[in-house]
Every structure is written in structure tokens, then in C-alpha cells.
Amino acid sequence: MHDVAKREVRLMDAANCPLLRSIDSPHDLRRLPLRALDRVASELRCYLIDTVCQKGGHFAAGLGVVELAVALHYVYQTPYDRLLWDVGHQAYPHKVLTGRREGLGGIKLKGGLAPFPARQESEYDAFGVGHSSTSLSAAFGMAIAATRTATPRRIVAVIGDGAMSAGIAFEALNHIGSMNLDILIVLNDNDMSISEATGAFSNYLAELLSGQYYAKLRERGPLLITHNGISGPAVLRLSAWGARTLHEKAYRFSLRVNWLPELNEVELRTEFQSRRQTESTRRVNNSPICAIPARLWEKLVSNAGIFPKTTWTSLTRAGRNELIRHLRVTELEVDGKSLNKEEFVTCGGVRLREINFKTMGSRITPNLYFAGELLDIDGITGGFNFQAAWTTGWIAGHAMAGVEPTIT
Questions:
Q1: Closest CA to 165 of 130, 209, 221, 203
Q2: Between 20 and 30 A from 267 (CA), which of 70, 228, 307, 347?
Q3: d(CA 158, CA 67)
């Protein structure tokens, strides 16, 4: 029965999915150009529909992660990097991309593929699961192991909204949140579990995804602290990319700063322990770690409730935990922008979807062209805005003159 299924699948694969047929492992996938991935996903979806309809198996969960499976295997170096699926029913596309394409027709049959990730089946199945909600705990353990062995391995856990509602998932999430580990958690919210999702968590996700500020602003880079507030490259980029959001908030919001993003919590605790052994009698407030400026360090130590005369050897566990918290998450309340000048970068103007960028002509009004700051284009620096104005004007000028733009 299983051999017959494999022969049928092989014929269908060769006829309808020529690009997918060339992929026997993620290494083959990663050799393809980026532009080919849409076609890979399309063939993979058709292949899953044809196979599962004929042979049976879990249907919707796998179809919901086709593009995600392609993207993750393309970006991450699996199986070295660990990829976990939760629930395991989502792993059908993953199985096809990891050398088990021809066996999909025998899934759930005796001697055939397992309907969940199975470690004995493939090195790409990083964690064997029976059903749901265990991926975050497993990912956390793998990340801890990688950190302690200095292994530069990345961990990805794909968890559905149904699986996310279990208590074990929240316990793991709470633990993961206390440590700065290299874990990517993908919450696949398809509003379904075995049946339609219900309850407070489902309602919260619906509200969150439809919320105005769903996309949080994040930046990494140098930060300038002055008597008047904060500035520097990171702030300039943040204010540029989030100009609309910040304007709608009247520039009143909470800003969280991680002063040592290059160190996770385990590494910070190791550094503190080293100071306790090598600088036991030295005061904490005058011995900053890494490249934190002395005055900033003194302020952080004070905000953590540590007395000025406290030495490394007399630093309590509570004081150590509080200082680590301030180093990793200092919350600053922003109450307005600089009053000394107008907005450095602005955005607004003609919507980009209304413009044909090959000519800079309007898609709505014939023979009407736009360039420069009339467009809804935003940038970090004035130099970017100037370049955008020059380039769009150059394209529009050629189009109005009926001349094909050429670059020499």
C-alpha cells in the first residue's frame, strides 16, 4: 500500500511540480534565487492539496504555513539551526522540503511517515511531539544548551494560537522572557484549534492584530544622552520610521532601552560573578561593566536601589537582579519632542500606491506627474530626501519628455 502511494505521488510530482521536484533538502532550496520562492510555495501548496486529498491526513494546518516553511528553511541553516512545529500537524510542508516528498502519500500508514515531527525519521525534526504546546519549553532548553556550549545555533518555534492557549506554553514564555536568548517565536494565529478558537486569549489576539500600534518600533545603535533629553542615530531612525505613530501619540510614550544588547542575562550574571571574585572590595557604583559611561552606570546602580558604599562581594541577590533588570530594560517616559527646531524629517503627501514609479505619473489622473516632497516618502536624513527628490524628478522629467530613462 505504501509503495503504491509513493509511485503515484512520484508521477504527480514530476508532472506538475518541476521546481519542487528539484528540492530534496533545504540545501537545494537555498541554492535557488529569491525570486523563485513564490513558485516553490505555489507548487508546494498544490502538491499538498493533491496528495492529502487522495491519501488523507491533516489538511488545514499545513496549508497555513506553506510560505512560512519555505521562508524559514531558506533563511535558517537547518538542521544545524533548530526548527520546531507546534502543533505538529503544521509540519507537512516541512516534511516535503526536507527529503520526504515522495513518502507523503504514505503518511499515517503502517511503515509510512509520521503525521508529526519525529526525530527518528529525520535530522530536520528537532523535537518529537505528539500534539501541542511543548515547543516553547523545548526551544528554551535548546537555546540554553547552545549558550552554555558556546554554539552559535539559532532556535525557531512556530506555535499556533490554539497551542499557545495552554498553561505549559505560558510557563515557558515567562521563563524565556527573563533571558536574552537567540529564540524566534512565530505565533501562527489562524483563529482555529481543533475547532474555532474561543476565550480571552483568542479575543486578545484579534484585538492586538487589529490594533493601531501592532507593529512596535525597535532600533539599535548609538544613543546620545543630553540635559534636554535623548538623541543620536538610534533615536533619529526611530523617529523617522515611526513618524506617524509618534505624531499620533503627541510624542508621549514609554521608551525601553537595553544598554547591553550584546549580552544576554546568563552572560550578565557570569560577569557579575566574575566581579565578585576579582574585585570583591570595589564599590559597585564606580566599576562599570563593558563600555557603559561612568555617570550612566552610577545612575543605573542608584536606580536599582543599591547603596553607594555597596561592594561587589556585599551585593545582595535582590540587588543583583534589580541591576540586571535596569541594564536590560530601562523604561524612559518621553514627554514631547525638542522645542528648538521643527520636525527633522516629515512624511505625508501623495500616496505611493497612486504612483507609477516607472514614470512617476499618477495612476488616477493622466499626464499628471509627482516628484520630491510631494510624495509620501520619509527618510532618516535630509540627504535621503534630497536624493529622493532628485531621482523622482529625473524619472518624471524623462517621462514627460517621452524619453526612456537610461543609466550610464
A1: 203
A2: 307
A3: 13
List, in sequence order, every beta strand (DSSP E) within 5-145: 82-86
**What are the CA-CA distances from residue 337 to residues 21, 26, 212, 231, 242 (Å)?**
56, 48, 21, 10, 13
Residues 50 and 105 sit within 8 Å (Cβ to Cβ): no
Q: How many other CB atoms are found less than 10 A from the CB of residue 38?
A: 11
Above 80 in pLDDT, residue 173?
yes
Residues 376 and 347: beta-carbon distance below 8 Å = yes
Phi-psi region for residue 307, left (φ > 0), alpha (ψ -120 to 50) or beta?
beta
For residue 228, report the phi and psi dihedrals to the nearest 5 degrees.
-95, -10
Query: What's the pLDDT tens digit per position in 86-104?
Result: 988 899 999 999 999 989 8
Residue 270, Ramachandran bin (φ over 0: left; ψ between -120 and 50: alpha; else beta)? alpha
pLDDT tens string 286-338: 999 988 999 999 999 999 999 999 999 999 988 888 898 889 888 888 888 77
Phi and psi for 365 in degrees, rounded to 5?
Answer: -115, 115
CA–CA separation, 368 and 124 (whole Å): 55
- How confident is the model over 351-393, as pLDDT tens digits? 888 899 889 999 999 899 988 878 877 655 555 667 788 888 9
Cell of 136: 516553547
pLDDT tens across 124-163, in order? 999 988 678 899 999 999 999 999 999 999 999 999 877 8
Residue 88 in grid coordinates: 505538529
10 Å CB burial of residue 322 (0-12, 13-18, 19+) is: middle
Distance between CA atoms of residues 255 and 217, nearest Å: 10
Closest CA to 344 of 392, 383, 376: 383
φ, ψ dihedrals at 183, nearest 5°: -125, 130
Which residues lie closer than 8 Å to 252 by C-beta, 6 or more apart? 334, 335, 336
State residue 225's pLDDT score: 85
